[in-house]
Amino acid sequence: MRIIIIRSNPILPDPRVEKEANTLLRLGYKVKLIAWNRQVINKREKTGEIKVKYGILPIRWFNINASYGNGLKSLFPLLLFQLCILGWLVRNRKEYDIIHACDFDTVIPVWICAKLFKKKYVYDIFDYYVDAFHVPGFLKPIVEKIDTVMINSANAVIIVNESRIEQISKSKPRKLYIIHNSPDISNLIVDDENIAFRNEKLKVVYIGILSSGRLLKETLKVFQAHQEWELHIGGFGPYEDYIKEIAESNNNIIYYGRIPYERVIAIEQKCDVLFATYDPDVPNHRYSSPNKLYEAMILGKPIIVANGTGIDVIVRNFEIGKAIDYNAESFEKALEEISEERKKWSSITNRIQSIYNAEYSWDIMNSRLKDLYMNL
After folding, report:
1. Is the Cα dihedral 164, 168, 169, 172 positive or negative?
2. Dihedrals phi, psi of 71, to nearest 5 degrees
3. Of 83, 38, 54, which is closest to residue 237 (Cα–Cα)?
4. Residue 217 has pLDDT above 80, yes or no
5. Fold of the domain spanning 2-181+361-374
6. Any idea which of 182-186, 194-198, 217-221, 269-273 has the lowest mean pLDDT?
7. Mean pLDDT, all residues of the chain
8. pLDDT value at residue 343
9. What pLDDT was estimated at residue 129?
């Protein structure tokens, strides 16, 4: 069976896409990737390969300049990307059997080709579009109705946690699977000898999307005021230059930029605390399922999250970190408490990891993905 996975970023990296593709390779499927290279990195290369544990993933990039989070300003590049997807799927229709569409911004051309050529497609909803992105108010009902058609037409739908069932309640998917953003521990937990932290400062880490709605600018101010703590931060997004500039003038803020996922895990492994503080006023954040939560659990590290984002319930119920109000003062207080409880945290590492293994491990998600594809 031949599968095409389509994603609206360059997949450099994209942990969820790589994990799912790796699982499909392991099951014996042939997998190719189509991706949107928005910032035209990689010297405008159009084709390449991504190496995962169980094989090589050929990738076709469409190099179309666009920024993240710019709303209607990115509409024309998005439409151009969708036309590129459609053209590629039409020209190469004899080279695939199933299309795996990631999010609403890839699914419409997939739906068209599924109808034209009687192909099956899986709709993998990382984020529910009208809640997650800057869709103008007058367009939201239209986009949601189209998205509902896409969900109802798919041979199978994937969402990232149980709370998202409410988010897609207007639809009636044929088959619905919940696959959490759990790390694949057999592939990603590494000890990078090049990462050696020698001081005794409390080390806090965030590596992900660098944009608004994540308390990042407020967090940077907290670390500027507390030189006794250390922030390790990286990723990509609109705040890249801003964070880099602040890091250059503060020895306790270390900026990594865009780095491979294996190194992300290695840095988190060396740090003491993770955070994933999303703005609860953003509707999609109320159903959040960030990689960081599962990475913290598998590493046995405490995590700081914002109240009202869904994952705060998990953090409080399992006592695996701090759930705070979405402001700098609450973040600062949480770090003060964690710093005082530092010895206690090291003693409950095994308990946190046991919760992960019992409830959220990639072995469990791997079985769900296997069941999905075997029963399409």
Report:
1. negative
2. 60, -130
3. 38
4. yes
5. Rossmann fold (3.40.50)
6. 194-198
7. 91
8. 80
9. 87
Q: Residue 347 — pLDDT band, cuts 50, 70, 90?
A: confident
Domain boundaries, the chain: 2-181+361-374, 186-359
Q: What is the tens place of the pLDDT at every residue in 24-81?
A: 999 999 999 999 998 765 556 789 999 999 999 999 999 998 866 555 567 899 999 9
Res. 186 pLDDT band, cuts 50 70 90: low
Return d(Cα 363, Cα 180) in angstroms, integer.
Answer: 11
> What is the token pair recorded at 158?
């994937």
Q: Between the CA of residue 227 and those of 46, 202, 249, 254, what are the distances in Å?
A: 44, 10, 12, 12
CATH architecture of 186-359: 3-Layer(aba) Sandwich (3.40)
**Is pLDDT of 93 > 90?**
yes
Q: Do domains 2-181+361-374 and 186-359 have the same CATH topology?
A: yes
Largest CA distance in the chain: 62
